């Protein structure tokens, strides 16, 4: 699997996800600078990392979505390349129109950094194949704007097309309002594109993909990609 | 420019007294102009010159074989092995945070980060020691909300995890909150950068953000006692831009991988003045700056404003000659300003020009050497009378414990640290809430199995009664918290927060704290490598409790040999290590006395430094040998609170059969104690190896704490502990 | 010429910040605040020129960057 991580000014989880990718694939990913529109042709996976691209000024992810590198990502996504957006990366993908909906301020208005529980809603994707159906995964969130919104038609399409990848849930796997950390529509934590080759999620799988850090529930995303794309 | 007349009022406004102004006239041999007066004012302010504290700071122990850089640079540096160093410092941003809590706290974080990456280190962790007024004081909630979101807003965006700290509440901070921010970074031992300029003719380069009128006179403000008018000073508070700081970190570290930097200094308080002065002064050189070439954000700025501005996210560098294009390309790539604004000279003078005209011409060494240094009169605090145990009311332990666990100084800080990204960088091995935070050492060559442990500590309750003991105890508690995770304590940074040093009793608190810190540092081989002094924390004559905050750093050589506070299994034996042979005895100045009896009197618990070291070394040995993975030191609230914290962290209760049910035994704060839990099968061997220093006090299990046939459910303790702060802040 | 772009959330979109503002106002005793919506104002300093051309350009700026049409709507005021 040949992977690249896009580095925007203000990205701050680029190294973190590179560590997880290297741990999975055995080689460091390409770190691709935001100003460069030309992505290598032979990439299997492009990761848009977490952070505060361009300070998240104006709107989270808004300016990164209009960067040169994202034009390249859009082309690659159209060709079916895998694109993974984590946290700020999810915001960027929504702003870029590669995923539907938008991410608004958390309903508590606070930035929230803590472990949450996610129910795996589909294993039918290159990102989630290594999870069991309805598996509960403990993965941290760390965001101020993770409150997913979409109009009714979009919501229905996501549901009908099995494109909701993860929902916030209780440790026992129940999808309840109490288990929703940010007010997201229908507890949505991550969604797939129509072609299922683009995943955006607010939680940070790279932060619990190493036993040293207290858990490995994020690792199946990288393992799934490794298997699907190698 | 119209010249400003230097009247006695203008001089007073600049915080210079008559004697100090006389010295200005003597050095210059003439009257200063307004720009020069402004420079003297900031350089000789308490904040920059340490004029009241210097005499005593010089007495602190600052050396050890592992110390690479002690106080006097941007941050202290210790060797952590494998060719790496830990670079760290703590600094206060008290006054600005009281006036504008969000920006004050945010720029405090920004400033301390710059101190660390200026030296070539990548910042790997932030900590914050906060002190607020009474929880029910009308300003407290607003200040907490602002400070916490300011710290989070800045730290989260720059992508450095905020992994620890502490919070206290006391009416003594109603008018002067304390925001002490600490940053720890990692740098290769062979690539450290200092501020000493060298090379006559070398270019002086300005990088980062443009200069505006932010915080003009901030450094002078931070050295003046507050009065009711201070809230009017709001416009002078500087505004932080964490996005630019993040770019500055990356650009500086990228440039540091080339060989073009001769010297580098961040522009902190007193901005361009102190940074340029410091670099030239350390190098024994002169400097010429063309102020009109400084990147400016606002129109119509004057030399005076440029020299005194505290605009954030700026650095000054001296480069190797001819290397400007290398540096400029890197800063342009990151979208940052870059300007050559001057050069080093051999004149020993600071010469400032404005479109070719000289606007200031000052001798550097005489100004630095003549900086006032005071031996202020001081008096020791009177020894407090001990508490008569018979006068202390006894309430059922269950009731006392629930009250204490939900009291302001003991309640969970989760509401705060969940607003901080404490996991970014992917190396946080121990998150907030334990004795010390632990981050994996992730050097330029990649991941390791080693870790850095860090903590901030101070118990102002103790120092208010006995400043010497307060200083000692703060150092000891930091050492103990590092020990409790299994780390080898290396060194400390001290952030000395006190009232008005012109009052002998306050000066006595400062002197006492220095004496107490020195004694502990020497006994524990735990030197001071950096620090900061914040004086004049007084409002309308009311001084804060003396608060010498200690930031401690230690190293874990094997992250598989580490302890955490959480009980790990049912049926483990609970052992108490250290302290008196029988039950604890000290109730003076304890949280029990304050929260249950409503009293703040008595003598604080004494510290036996030799015993402290012996017990701590024993505990660390147990952890490092792999025999103990559950450990917690006994501090605020005493033994039963420590057990409750371990139970809540692990979700496993305990039954205690080895302690007496008296307030002193359960809630006394006798020092030098640790609780460990070990598998039942190992308990006898551990106890026999430890001898008389340890005894068994109970075992883990169930979902309640039980003692003398009475129980309190963990759920009740959890509600009290986790609920207090969200309820205070209106989120529950 | 100055252009002032008022960006607000679309009427159907929940506005947590606006909700908090309304609650705070009610807590302060300001009765009759039925709802509050928070938005932002972006001031642009434009080179002088034709007003209708300026309006068209600002509309384009809103579409391309300043406004997220999934959740936001906007209004432009031109002065001078």
TrEMBL record, chain A:
Biological pathway: Purine metabolism; IMP biosynthesis via de novo pathway; 5-amino-1-(5-phospho-D-ribosyl)imidazole from N(2)-formyl-N(1)-(5-phospho-D-ribosyl)glycinamide: step 1/2
Catalyzed reactions per annotation: L-glutamine + H2O = L-glutamate + NH4(+); N(2)-formyl-N(1)-(5-phospho-beta-D-ribosyl)glycinamide + L-glutamine + ATP + H2O = 2-formamido-N(1)-(5-O-phospho-beta-D-ribosyl)acetamidine + L-glutamate + ADP + phosphate + H(+)
Cited InterPro entries: Class_I_gatase-like (IPR029062), PRibForGlyAmidine_synth_PurQ (IPR010075)
Primary location: cytoplasm
Location(s), subcellular: Cytoplasm
Keywords, comma-separated and alphabetical: ATP-binding, Cytoplasm, Glutamine amidotransferase, Hydrolase, Ligase, Nucleotide-binding, Purine biosynthesis
Catalytic machinery residues: 87 (nucleophile), 204, 206
A Pfam family matched in the record: GATase_5
Quaternary assembly: Part of the FGAM synthase complex composed of 1 PurL, 1 PurQ and 2 PurS subunits.
Biological function: Part of the phosphoribosylformylglycinamidine synthase complex involved in the purines biosynthetic pathway. Catalyzes the ATP-dependent conversion of formylglycinamide ribonucleotide (FGAR) and glutamine to yield formylglycinamidine ribonucleotide (FGAM) and glutamate. The FGAM synthase complex is composed of three subunits. PurQ produces an ammonia molecule by converting glutamine to glutamate. PurL transfers the ammonia molecule to FGAR to form FGAM in an ATP-dependent manner.
Protein name: Phosphoribosylformylglycinamidine synthase subunit PurQ
Automatic annotation (TrEMBL), chain B:
UniProt entry keywords in alphabetical sequence: ATP-binding, Cytoplasm, Ligase, Magnesium, Metal-binding, Nucleotide-binding, Purine biosynthesis
Keyword match Protein biosynthesis: no
Binding positions for Mg(2+) 1 per the UniProt entry: 91, 532
Gene name in the database record: purL
Function of the molecule: Part of the phosphoribosylformylglycinamidine synthase complex involved in the purines biosynthetic pathway. Catalyzes the ATP-dependent conversion of formylglycinamide ribonucleotide (FGAR) and glutamine to yield formylglycinamidine ribonucleotide (FGAM) and glutamate. The FGAM synthase complex is composed of three subunits. PurQ produces an ammonia molecule by converting glutamine to glutamate. PurL transfers the ammonia molecule to FGAR to form FGAM in an ATP-dependent manner.
Catalytic center residues: 47, 93 (proton acceptor)
Domain Phosphoribosylformylglycinamidine synthase linker: 13-51
Subunit-level organization: Monomer. Part of the FGAM synthase complex composed of 1 PurL, 1 PurQ and 2 PurS subunits.
HAMAP family per the UniProt record, alphabetical: PurL_2
Gene Ontology biological process terms in this record: 'de novo' IMP biosynthetic process
Domain PurM-like N-terminal: residue ranges: 72-187, 433-555
GO cellular component, one term: cytoplasm
NCBIfam families named in the record: FGAM_synth_II, PRK01213.1
The enzyme's E.C. designation: 6.3.5.3
Residues annotated to bind Mg(2+) 2: 115, 266
Protein name as catalogued: Phosphoribosylformylglycinamidine synthase subunit PurL
Domain PurM-like C-terminal: 200-354, 570-700
PANTHER family: PHOSPHORIBOSYLFORMYLGLYCINAMIDINE SYNTHASE SUBUNIT PURL
From TrEMBL, chain C:
Subcellular location: Cytoplasm
Keyword DNA damage part of the UniProt annotation: no
InterPro entries: PurS, PurS-like_sf
Pathway where it operates: Purine metabolism; IMP biosynthesis via de novo pathway; 5-amino-1-(5-phospho-D-ribosyl)imidazole from N(2)-formyl-N(1)-(5-phospho-D-ribosyl)glycinamide: step 1/2
Predominant location: cytoplasm
Residues passing through the membrane, by range: none
Top enzyme category: ligase
GO molecular function, one term: ATP binding
Pfam families assigned to the protein according to its UniProt record, in alphabetical order: PurS (PF02700)
GO BP: 'de novo' IMP biosynthetic process
EC number: 6.3.5.3
Cellular component terms per the entry's GO annotation: cytoplasm
Keywords per UniProt: ATP-binding, Cytoplasm, Ligase, Nucleotide-binding, Purine biosynthesis
Mitochondrion in keyword set: no
Origin superkingdom: Bacteria
Reactions this protein catalyses: N(2)-formyl-N(1)-(5-phospho-beta-D-ribosyl)glycinamide + L-glutamine + ATP + H2O = 2-formamido-N(1)-(5-O-phospho-beta-D-ribosyl)acetamidine + L-glutamate + ADP + phosphate + H(+)
Family per similarity comment: Belongs to the PurS family.
Quaternary state and interactors: Part of the FGAM synthase complex composed of 1 PurL, 1 PurQ and 2 PurS subunits.
Record's function text: Part of the phosphoribosylformylglycinamidine synthase complex involved in the purines biosynthetic pathway. Catalyzes the ATP-dependent conversion of formylglycinamide ribonucleotide (FGAR) and glutamine to yield formylglycinamidine ribonucleotide (FGAM) and glutamate. The FGAM synthase complex is composed of three subunits. PurQ produces an ammonia molecule by converting glutamine to glutamate. PurL transfers the ammonia molecule to FGAR to form FGAM in an ATP-dependent manner.
Protein name: Phosphoribosylformylglycinamidine synthase subunit PurS
The organism of origin for this protein: Roseospira marina
Organism phylogeny: Bacteria, Pseudomonadati, Pseudomonadota, Alphaproteobacteria, Rhodospirillales
Gene: purS
